[in-house]
Structures are given as structure tokens and as C-alpha cells.
Amino acid sequence: MKAYQIQTLDNGIRVIHQPVNNSKIIHCGFVLDIGSRDEKPHQVGIAHFWEHMAFKGTRKRKAFHILNRLDAVGGELNAYTTKEKIFFHASVLDQYVEKAFDLLVDITFESIFPEKQIEKERQVILEEMSMYYDSPEDAIQDQFDEVIFKDHPLGNNILGDQESLKKFKRSDFIDFLQENLDTSRIVFSIVGDLSENKLNRLINKYLKPIPAQKRSRTRVPFSEYKPQQLHVKREVTQAQCAIGTTAYPIHHPKRLPFFMLVNILGGPGMNTRLNMALREKYGFVYAIDAGYHPFSDTALFSIFFGTDSNQLNKSIRLVKKELKKLQDIRLGTLQLHVAKEQLMGQLAMAEENNMSFMLMLGRSLLDKDKIESLDELFDQIRNIEAGDLQEVANEIWPEERLSLLTYQS
């Protein structure tokens, strides 16, 4: 694989291209440094609502023409919103890449937010909210954000709430973009077999004409974490549980050791500490996962699982026991070696998914102003010592720092 190429355009947008040979598919998209945490109290849910409205009409296309443009040639157009980012992206056969560039620029920068479409999409999002609420394993993840971050914007549901959604008008979307859209905080990422000449032609035609926009937005930092315990009575056939706390932000030097530690505890492998303890040994759970989601100034560490109500308290004790083991017992030489090899293998396989890789490149360039190669990451992982893992376990996982949320009938 050839090295990636980065350009910074006069309007501030950065373009990163990772050439990939022997693939007929090109993945490309905008990553914007705007998310639900950038909403003011009266705007809760508008970032995600904007993501929906981007598909509902631009200065030159109606909703049908947007949705049909790439689908008609077997391509895909999609978007999603997180706490700190919005993604608009497409995947197409290489011969249709210009259609993708044209359409992505159109929906990202030329939306007109038709009032009739706002009313229609408002109902769609309310149905989306109901769908997630009716799924306890999804609902508990949203509510756990509130438990950890409380009244801070990071604690708000990305979808918003019914009260705020019902108030949004066309002017609210325009105001939100004027407050937050900064072209110097946007990356256009491409992964695929695209010649330099063709790429530059597309950049000159579609990306360079985008007007420069500069904003002096400052995110409200999160600092006041207080552990909480909340037990919610809900009609569920299986008790749901969330355990977690805050952790290291994106730029923290201990971020990678903690990421590795979380992978040992409850990553995607079947041999994780939590899976072995709760599923393989006792059969208490079908699935149990640990996650680490770093933000610019803090992070969320979380464990989610479902179990029979009669086994909930014992399952919670087993989870805390595994956390305590990693605090008290340093990994042996062989355990550390296996953990490193497993993490490096998972990272390498993740890079094989070109669409996810494209989005990761854009996100990494925004967050870190650089791209770490696999070799660089592997070197950092190899230099992690058992003492580093034990140190972060003791900093993040003391029982008094843990918050708990349960759903039970």
C-alpha cells in the first residue's frame, strides 16, 4: 500500500487520500468537527437532525434525486453523528467517483432545509427515538451517558428529546451551522485506487470552490465527574446493567495503554477476562463488552451486559472482581505478549475494512493533526509494560470511581 497524501486547501479543508491498488471501490467522505456536544440547551438534537436534513433537499436537488443519485449505480450514501463529529460518506465503483464528490459537497454545504421536509423528518426521528427506547440494551447505553456526564452536553442523547425536536425550524439549522461550521475543522478523506491527476481535478472542481468559513467556537469542558448509582424499574425480560466511569482523553499519553487494558478486559475477542468469567465459566451472559470512547477533554469507559435478574448481583460482583484483579495482579510476561499480539492483529484487520479505514483517517487527522501508521502503533504497543497497565487500572478502576445503572422488572 502506498503512503497516504495530505493537502490543505485555501479554504482550510484538508484532503487525505490513501491509495489502494486492486480495488474497484472508492470510499470517500467529509468528517466535520461538529457533534452533539456543541449544541446549546435549546439546540439539543439538532446536529443529528441536520444529518438527516442534509438528504432532504439542496439548492439543486430534491430529496428523491439525492437518494437516487448513487443508489442507481450501486453505490451507497450514508451519514452519522457522534458526540464530537458528523460524517457524510459514500462508497462507489471507481467510475462513479465524480458523482460521489459532487453529491457529498452538495448535501454537506448546500442544504436548504425545506420546511415540509423538516416536519416529515421530525416524525422519523421521533420514531427512531421510540425504536431505541423500546430496545433496553440500546436505551441503557444512552441513559448511561446521562449518569456519567449529568447536565453536561456530553450527557445529552445524540437524538435529542421530544421537547426540543418539536420546536426546530429552518432558521435553527441555519443558526447552528453559522455557529459551528469551520472549514479548517473539516477533512475530506478518500481510500481507493484514484490517480493523482484525477484526484486533483476533482479537488479543483468540487472542493476548492467551497467558501472558507471560520468560527471561534469553544467547547464547554467536562470536569465534575461524580460516581452515581441508579436502578431503573422497567418491564424487561432480561436485566440490563451498565458499569463505568470517566477515563483518559484523546491526547493523553496513557490512552494507548488503557485501550490495550480495556481490550484485555472486554474487547472483541472471545478470550477476554469478562467473557471468560461471566459467559464461559458461569453462563450468566450471552454477551458482555467493555468500551473506551475518548473525547477531546475526557472519555467514557463502560461495560454493558444483560442477564437474568436472579444473577444480576452476582454478575456485578464478578465484573468488579475482574477489574480488581487487573489492579492488583501484574500481567506475566506471556500474558503481556499475547495481549500485545492480539491487539496488533485486531488493528491490522480493522485497517482491511476500507470504508472504516477512510473514516478513521479523517477522524484521526482532525483529532491529532497526523496519521499514525500501523508500524508506529505497533512500536508503541510493543513498548507498553505490565506496570503501565497496572498503573492505569489503579487510576481509572477503583471501585469508588465506578458508576452503575441497572434496568430490572
TrEMBL record:
Give residue ranges for domain Peptidase M16 N-terminal. Answer: 21-161
Residue ranges annotated for the Peptidase M16 C-terminal domain, each copy included? 168-343
What InterPro entries is this protein classified in? Metalloenz_LuxS/M16 (IPR011249), MPP/UQCRC_Complex (IPR050361), Pept_M16_N (IPR011765), Peptidase_M16_C (IPR007863)
Q: Which family does it belong to?
A: Belongs to the peptidase M16 family.
Q: What is this protein called?
A: Peptidase M16
Tell me the organism's taxonomic lineage: Bacteria, Pseudomonadati, Bacteroidota, Cytophagia, Cytophagales
